[in-house]
Amino acid sequence: MTRIPLLAGLLILSSAALAETADTAQSLAQPCAACHGQKGQGGMGAYPHLAGLGETYLKRQLDAFASGQRDNPIMKPMASGLSDAQRATLARYFSKQSPAAPGSNPPADNGAGAELVRHGRWQDDIPACVQCHGPDARGIGKDFPGLAGQPAGYLQDQLKAWRNGKRQGDPQGLMSAVAKRLDDADLAAVADYLASLSAAPGQEGQP
Amino acid sequence: MNKSHPLLIVIGGCVLLGSVATGLGYWLTGGGPQSFRSDIVVHNSDGSPDSPPQASSPESASATDNTGAGPDAGPPPRSAIPDNEFGALVRKGEQIFADPGQYAGQYVGNDLRCQSCHFDAGRYDKTAPMRAAWPMYPAYRSKNQHVNDFAERLQGCFTYSMNGKAPPRGSDILQALEAYSFWLAKGTTVGESLPSKGFPDIGKPQQAPSYERGQAVFQANCALCHGADGQGQQAADGGYGFPPLWGKHSYNWGAGMHKVETAARFIKAAMPLGNPALTEQQAWDVAFFVNSHERPQDPRFDGSVQGTAKQFHHHDYARYGQSVDGQVLGSQAPPSATVP
């Protein structure tokens, strides 16, 4: 008998806790919208979208911005001003948002980029992007972020940063190792092709 | 993938076409008691035991081929597939190779794909390329103790590495895979073993492989992608992610990859993906660890684990029939040939 009121009480308590968490996350995320779009869905020029990226990946990036391991003059103060728990809350929040709906543009018709993304260049020991980032480049699990639909300029900058060591902290050094085998033309082609893909499932933009 | 076989990529998995000719068999199907030292390039057609998956050392592989004509040029580029009926069959073969769950699903019983182990749809020269397999058949295989043609060799991949069923001889699936392999082998010499055949030799381990060391290597280097439980990961939309390394969705106890040496060679050459940096000893240890887990039953199971072990599992460091944490490997194996 006493179980029902107890259970009801627990439900009320946990609902309140959930609501509070959601409020906190949304308010924490407010400043992010100026560059990363509403709910982190992007669409703001060269700034990346965050919606739907892996939680572990996002948390690692916020930590790296705060520590300076990932060098970024805009993100450094933003991330440093957050507690570890707040960074975790934001990472969880953005990982649970849906990416923007697919656009109507077809994938970029650049043979070199598509080839690297889909097949790699194994004669140079370069795996295909899709092997770790998913067959649609929309990510795998918590550690491997989606790349589809990120701005080309952003992707190219990051690839350069992986290559020259300005961006570090990738698990097991996997991304740095691959980026060092890509030349400038490769970076541009890969970035253009990935940017033309859709971050959300849909008819268009699939590799 | 989107279809019935969600994960697939895996590591070990696949093995489908292994070193292709001889090697093919080897790794997929676990050959018999032959040795795989491979400083020797043997082939099977002379009636000798299966040749090693890899016939020569990596150094010699990169330096020369068997014809003395310089390094192997490798397979033709994808763009060279002709626009005719033959080319259509070649393309179909590549599709099956990259996604057998979708294009040959009725014969596939796990979440692996051919290219889980034979990278780049069987093109990569360090992971038992089809180019090096095709010219080496027909060949004698100790695994089944008779001369196998290439079609039968491919059937073995489905039976063992894919834990599935053999597509019928003459079926469009086998014909497409044969056409694709034939096309990849353009410019090779029939009966001449390429240095890239099989997985590159890594010699014998300095220390006997260790489960404990292997577990540590696994957690530090493999779990990121394949999961701490070895079950792999699916992509965000359910497509191929990272393949399962043991359990009911992985290769079975008859696949070449279940042999510790075959897995160690593959791992040394190719893992972690994009940054293969393990030592030989680490590769042996982690291969031993991975293959110390239960997986689908050996299709040759005779009703008794010890009997099956005695008949088919004499290779070095064989795990089938051995006890791990008080449980005999093979005794709790999920069924083989679990096709949809």
UniProtKB/TrEMBL annotation, chain A:
<dbReference type="InterPro" id="IPR024167">
    <property type="entry name" value="Cytochrome_c4-like"/>
</dbReference>
<protein>
    <submittedName>
        <fullName>Cytochrome C</fullName>
    </submittedName>
</protein>
<feature type="signal peptide">
    <location>
        <begin position="1"/>
        <end position="19"/>
    </location>
</feature>
<dbReference type="GO" id="GO:0009055">
    <property type="term" value="F:electron transfer activity"/>
</dbReference>
<feature type="binding site" description="covalent">
    <location>
        <position position="132"/>
    </location>
    <ligand>
        <name>heme c 2</name>
    </ligand>
</feature>
<dbReference type="InterPro" id="IPR050597">
    <property type="entry name" value="Cytochrome_c_Oxidase_Subunit"/>
</dbReference>
<dbReference type="InterPro" id="IPR036909">
    <property type="entry name" value="Cyt_c-like_dom_sf"/>
</dbReference>
<keyword id="KW-0732">Signal</keyword>
<keyword id="KW-0408">Iron</keyword>
<feature type="binding site" description="axial binding residue">
    <location>
        <position position="133"/>
    </location>
    <ligand>
        <name>heme c 2</name>
    </ligand>
</feature>
<feature type="domain" description="Cytochrome c">
    <location>
        <begin position="108"/>
        <end position="198"/>
    </location>
</feature>
<dbReference type="Pfam" id="PF00034">
    <property type="entry name" value="Cytochrom_C"/>
</dbReference>
<keyword id="KW-0249">Electron transport</keyword>
<keyword id="KW-0574">Periplasm</keyword>
<keyword id="KW-0479">Metal-binding</keyword>
<feature type="binding site" description="covalent">
    <location>
        <position position="35"/>
    </location>
    <ligand>
        <name>heme c 1</name>
    </ligand>
</feature>
<keyword id="KW-0349">Heme</keyword>
<dbReference type="GO" id="GO:0042597">
    <property type="term" value="C:periplasmic space"/>
</dbReference>
<feature type="binding site" description="axial binding residue">
    <location>
        <position position="75"/>
    </location>
    <ligand>
        <name>heme c 1</name>
    </ligand>
</feature>
<feature type="binding site" description="covalent">
    <location>
        <position position="129"/>
    </location>
    <ligand>
        <name>heme c 2</name>
    </ligand>
</feature>
<feature type="binding site" description="covalent">
    <location>
        <position position="32"/>
    </location>
    <ligand>
        <name>heme c 1</name>
    </ligand>
</feature>
<dbReference type="GO" id="GO:0020037">
    <property type="term" value="F:heme binding"/>
</dbReference>
TrEMBL record, chain B:
<keyword id="KW-0349">Heme</keyword>
<dbReference type="InterPro" id="IPR051459">
    <property type="entry name" value="Cytochrome_c-type_DH"/>
</dbReference>
<keyword id="KW-0408">Iron</keyword>
<keyword id="KW-0479">Metal-binding</keyword>
<dbReference type="GO" id="GO:0046872">
    <property type="term" value="F:metal ion binding"/>
</dbReference>
<dbReference type="InterPro" id="IPR009056">
    <property type="entry name" value="Cyt_c-like_dom"/>
</dbReference>
<dbReference type="GO" id="GO:0009055">
    <property type="term" value="F:electron transfer activity"/>
</dbReference>
<protein>
    <submittedName>
        <fullName>Cytochrome c class I</fullName>
    </submittedName>
</protein>
<dbReference type="InterPro" id="IPR036909">
    <property type="entry name" value="Cyt_c-like_dom_sf"/>
</dbReference>
<feature type="region of interest" description="Disordered">
    <location>
        <begin position="38"/>
        <end position="84"/>
    </location>
</feature>
<dbReference type="GO" id="GO:0020037">
    <property type="term" value="F:heme binding"/>
</dbReference>
<feature type="compositionally biased region" description="Low complexity">
    <location>
        <begin position="45"/>
        <end position="63"/>
    </location>
</feature>
<dbReference type="Pfam" id="PF00034">
    <property type="entry name" value="Cytochrom_C"/>
</dbReference>
<feature type="domain" description="Cytochrome c">
    <location>
        <begin position="209"/>
        <end position="294"/>
    </location>
</feature>
